[in-house]
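User: Show me an example of a complex going from sequences to structure tokens.

Assistant: Sure. Here are the input components:
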Amino acid sequence: MTKETVDGAMEEQQAQSKKGLKKQQKEVEKAAKKAEKQAKLAAEQQSTEEDDFAKDRYGVLAMVQSQQKLDRTLVRVKDLTPEKADQLIWMRARVHTSRAKGKQCFLVLRQQQFNVQALVAVGDRASKQMVKFAANITKESIVDVEAAVRRVEQKIESCSQQDVELHIERIFVISQAEPRLPLQLEDAVRPDGEGEEEGRATVNQDTKLDNRVIDLRTTTSQAIFRLQSGVCQLFRDTLTQKGFVEIQTPKIISAASEGGANVFTVSYFKTSAYLAQSPQLYKQMCICADFDKVFCVGPVFRAEDSNTHRHLTEFVGLDIEMAFNYHYHEVIESITDTMVQIFKGLRDNFQTEIQTVNKQFPSEPFKFLEPTLRLEYTEALAMLHEAGVEMGDEEDLSTPNEKLLGRLVKEKYDTDFYVLDKYPLAVRPFYTMPDPNNPKYSNSYDMFMRGEEILSGAQRVHDAQLLTERAIHHQIDLEKIKAYIDSFRYGAPPHGGGGIGLERVCMLYLGLHNIRQTSMFPRDPKRLTP
Amino acid sequence: MALRELSSLEKYLGLKKPNKYSTQGDKKVPVLQNNNGPPLVGLVTIACHLVKEAKRPELLGDSAEGRAVVQQWLEHRVTKLDGCTKEDTKTILKDLNLYLQDKVFLAGNQFTLADAFIYFGIHPLIVEMPIQEKEQYVNVTRWFDHIQHHPGLRHHLPPLVVLRNRIYTSRHH
């Protein structure tokens, strides 16, 4: 080795040893820290194991696989009232929030629209470790809780159960939620305005719809869909009382019922078939089959490539059809009376739900008249003309004009619900009965809620010959509707009806602005899941 | 457009002989040939001249302050309102709405040239406006309806329908 290299090597060695020293030092420090940590942990663990007298009063239970039949009553959160004060009860709910404060942990336990405050405090029933466990339960986890119901002097404003709180004696996790939720429930119910003002997060609609299962847990969603269930219930009950029979119609059909443009095609063995755009044809065939008054509740499929606030590709149709004696106004009266019964039923029995929705989405209460307001098309044109809108006699109403008309009607008659009668024949489907006195008009009608259309209906053509003429006039292939026309050849009563969309009625009754809010798992041109 | 306004003004003033106007420049500034002197150029200049010709000086304001305000509005019309962009319209209408909060006419307590020319200038904007917006600018709409019914004023402009009652009462929908 030359001197240089020796020097170099020496330097290297020196450098190495400097480095080495540093490295060694670091390692020593690291080891020291590790030892410290381990010692601390050990001490903690020791203390944990030492002092935990409440060990069997909390924990994560094994998955409920129906191991045993426990004869235990679980009380509902909504029944936790001062009447139950000082009782020891069991209940199951979700952990909405949990917050530790020194020797106490405050939880809010939620069950659908109801929530209650609960408390785990270090004492003779709960240990420090138990309080720590409670504070660490992830949000949305489902827990079984045994607690004493205690009265509170000051009302708990933030909970639905304001007069009591639970003092927890035992708490077990039945189903744990993952710590990172795709959205926070408080954010999902925050009104948009408030979010902007206070700089807090709100959740946009797409996120809500992508994580629908969690979004549906919010108080607002629970309220909306309970109300929707009410609408269906009231529809069925009112019509059954009026002597209507509920029918089921096929959804896989051989010909497009409303025209070929907006229909879904499905492969049907060796040929293709269509998904029904409405139960129209089958409702009418039932009338010809002597069922007299029928209704059906079922899915409707419209392949409309419209991405608007009020269109879905699949929605629930509530359809009515009935034979009448002499005038189709008998049908209008039946339908409007049904709608009024629904509105009254919602107003009288679902106020809690309506108020809950209004907290996040404020709106004016829904107003209607009895008897229902009925305007003729020509009157509507005159009202629009007075307001400066020019429209032809036989022109259909555009959406902005419909909305403007709704506003004018509201201002003049103070109602959010009305019927527009005698539409021009040119803008109605081929099976609409023309007006007997004026060939430009027809015996058809639309109904509106808050200025938006919810029902289209008419007296139907029940004469096979006239029906054929009308079909030819509309350039419809007679072969495709042969079975339909045939049903009127063997005696058919005069009849009429109409259909409403369940989601649209709910949306407009509550004054909401997007139909996806009232459809549990909405379908539109851009959404096929969940 | 400016020429039609001037011809409407002539009719309003009751001037027997309509003048012949020409225009200059690509902004089509109106020009009036004068036998007595140099030609009059500009909408406001010609309008004031016509008013003097018709011996209706009150249309230019009834006091020194009134006259100043009228001139201000006429200048506003030609410089700010004509040829403004969509964003500017919103500001202009908002300011006008605020100004008209407690006034029946733009200047003083009577009809002046200011009212006429702001009415002419704003007409195309109001005609396009949906009812909801018209109700937002409630003072502008009120003043507009008042001026458009002023006898003898509205010649070349179609009347606008203004609803008597508000139909957009709440901020929802």
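The lines above are the inputs; the final block is the predicted structure for all two components together. Chain B has a mean pLDDT of 87.
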